[in-house]
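Format notes (please read before filing issues)

Several people have asked whether sequences and structure tokens are stored in separate files. They are not. Every record keeps both together, in the order shown below: the sequence lines, then the token lines. Line labels are part of the format and must not be stripped during preprocessing.
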Amino acid sequence: MPTGVHLRDARQQLFDAAERVLLRDGPNGLTSRAVTDEAGCAKGVMHRYFADFDAFLTDLVLERAAQLEKQAAALRESAGTGTVADNLTSALATLFGPVPVAIIPLITFRDELRTRLRQTRPGGGIAILAEATTAIASYLADERELGRIAADTDIDSLTLSLVGGGHLLFADRDAGPTATAVVSKLVSAVIADAVQRRP
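Then the structure lines:
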């Protein structure tokens, strides 16, 4: 696309292009040139909106984390409805969708990105995992308050087991999508004691 052509909502188009490149080519393939080529715009367009490529990536990760906040709110609203296992299974599948899972190695791969994320927000160096952890912990606390899991449940340990196990299940995208039954089995095993011991 010629430099003079106006992009409608250029920031979002660049973010969308970056996500497509990340999913297709992985963190090593995500360069400013790859993003602008994918977006169909001149390289200068990115520099009009972002100081440098790491600033772009920082905003990309924070934008994705903000989307996860909305999904976390939906999870909290599900407290007291359905089953705890079904709610958590659905939440893990959403929180560890293809783009969030692809962003995690990107953060690991780029030291400057981690540094900027830490400067921007608490826990920012692992923004996606931190968002998933907060979502699950808040939901579990709500369910404990409602009496649907045991009152003495260690929310922090349960959350780490669910987030860590969920991430491992979803991390290998080359093997294809993770079956709901596999996620459900993990969730049921992790929360079994807390659900069975409830008053």
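For reference, the curators noted about this record: Residues 1-6 have pLDDT under 50 and may be disordered. The two ends are 64 Å apart (CA to CA).
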